[in-house]
Design goal:
alpha+beta; three-stranded antiparallel sheet; 4 helices; about 250 residues; single chain
Length: about 250
């Protein structure tokens, strides 16, 4: 039986990461750019570890994980909000999870053909690898930039037949891999809004101390196939990371 691993549990929460400048953080993203390779080439980063060997191992696992996420990513999102009759928000709570099948992760790793291995102060090990079981085709989208150097997908989503796109963002955490994972997951959640297979909503209205209160519970589930991080961007002004993600329609 397939074993599923919660996506968010894979984020490494390591202490003691050194502070880096904005230029270094942007440079780390440049090292992750594989737009010049065909679609069956993936990149993985490790985050900081005590040895280069461990960093390379973790980066290779990250590459294989990307391949499995592309095969199928299941998402479960729940939101509860409470508001007064005047519309002012009183409280809210959310619970979001992503699941992927890691049953054959070891076999996927064995099939990888390593192209390059590099080390980056911010990213740890950066491994670029080819997955020969996939066809080597052109990537579905190449980013374009405005006069300020920002990718145009931050304001206008790409239009590519057979694919859906969504953008996610994250604040800057001390670890690059945690920042990127958070932005990636937000993009996946936004794809779920476009491709939910189950949506449930129920509302309860009550009166307490002559004040009307509205409580809304919403839940949605969906399965994303072809989930891929197409591009990333670091916005120095807002100190935030942005991810452009796609999946099959």
């Amino acid at each position: 039986m397939a074993r599923f691993v919660p996506l968010l549990l894979l984020v490494s929460l390591l202490a003691g990461c050194t502070t880096t400048s904005v230029e270094q953080r942007a440079g780390a993203l440049a090292n992750l750019d594989i737009s010049g390779y065909p679609s069956n080439v993936y990149v993985g980063i490790s985050g900081p570890y005590s040895t280069e060997e461990r960093m390379v191992e973790e980066a290779i696992v990250a590459v294989a994980k990307s391949i499995h996420l592309k095969a199928a990513l299941a998402l479960d999102s729940r939101l509860v909000t409470a508001s007064h009759a005047d519309g002012n928000l009183k409280s809210f709570a959310s619970d979001d999870h992503g699941y992927w099948d890691d049953t054959h992760l070891g076999e996927t790793i064995k099939r990888l053909k390593i192209i390059t291995v590099a080390f980056d102060r911010e990213a740890g090990a950066v491994v670029v690898a080819e997955y020969p079981d996939e066809e080597a085709s052109r990537r579905i989208y190449t980013s374009q930039y405005d006069r300020d150097g920002k990718p145009t997908w931050m304001s206008v989503l790409p239009q590519v037949e057979g694919h859906r796109f969504a953008v996610g963002s994250s604040i800057r955490y001390s670890l690059l891999n945690r920042s990127l994972e958070a932005a990636d997951f937000t993009a996946a959640q936004n794809l779920l809004d476009l491709k939910s297979e189950h949506v449930f909503s129920i509302e309860k209205v009550s009166t307490y101390n002559d004040l009307m209160e509205r409580v809304l519970y919403q839940a949605q589930r969906g399965l994303l196939r072809g989930f891929t991080i197409v591009d990333r961007y670091y916005d120095a002004e807002s100190k935030s990371y942005w991810s452009l993600a796609s999946c099959y329609e």
